[in-house]
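User: Just a sanity check before I run the rest of the batch. Below are the structure tokens for the first item. I only need the designed sequence back.
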């Protein structure tokens, strides 16, 4: 474990990888590398945002089954916690990996089970917190989400460990995510924050952005703030290719 260095790695996974192109596993491996611990790395997968989908659990379990460098576990909360001591289990991990899905449902279930306080303890204890999509938004104050309907709406009920907003899949075809996020920030419905294109992740140490990384050449992160007269300003954050 990393002692008391607080770390979050929030990323946008590749939703539709091209044949022969990069998938999201390199981003997960980056998060595992942040643990800075001897092997095996203790990794807990938390699929709350997809309702503890058995398919999601089976696919991740299969993926890690033959990796001797990973001690893999799953925390399910439906219909009850799958471990007798949730706090003890999560505090014993090196990395906690949160699945994407519905960030609204994720936070509602987590609050019912007391996870915000437990995860704050984990963060302060040096457990690396990571996740994609909803598992990226959750560590921030909030961001745009389609958890309520097909339309994107502001969500402001995140854990707030990272005191800014977050937008994921900023370049996703078929949804105006880039436009909507910037409009919500410009209108003051979301605070300033960072957007990530698919394949890009943000590594925070404490509450500050340490670096952005990408598994796809040419992809970017963006820092978006409210400008004058209801407008916004944005600046590119050029990621390190991994």
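Assistant: Here's the designed sequence for the first item:
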């Amino acid at each position: 474990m990393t002692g008391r260095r607080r770390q979050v790695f929030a990323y946008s996974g590749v939703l539709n990888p091209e044949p022969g192109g990069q998938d999201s596993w390199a981003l997960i491996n980056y998060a595992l590398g942040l643990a800075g611990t001897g092997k095996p790395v203790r990794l807990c997968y938390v699929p709350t945002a997809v309702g503890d989908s058995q398919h999601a659990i089976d696919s991740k379990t299969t993926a890690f089954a033959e990796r001797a460098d990973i001690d893999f576990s799953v925390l399910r909360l439906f219909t009850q916690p799958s471990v007798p001591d949730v706090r003890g289990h999560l505090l014993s991990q090196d990395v906690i990996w949160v699945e994407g899905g519905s960030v609204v449902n994720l936070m509602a279930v987590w609050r019912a089970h007391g996870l915000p306080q437990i995860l704050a303890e984990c963060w302060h204890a040096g457990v690396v917190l990571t996740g994609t999509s909803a598992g990226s938004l959750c560590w921030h104050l909030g961001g745009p989400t389609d958890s309520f309907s097909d339309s994107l709406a502001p969500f402001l009920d995140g854990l707030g460990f990272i005191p800014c907003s977050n937008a994921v899949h900023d370049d996703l075809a078929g949804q105006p995510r880039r436009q909507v996020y910037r409009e919500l920030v410009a209108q003051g419905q979301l605070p300033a924050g960072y957007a990530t294109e698919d394949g890009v992740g943000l590594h925070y140490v404490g509450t500050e952005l340490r670096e952005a990384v990408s598994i796809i050449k040419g992809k970017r992160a963006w820092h978006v703030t409210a400008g004058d007269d209801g407008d916004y300003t944005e600046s590119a954050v050029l990621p390190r290719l991994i």
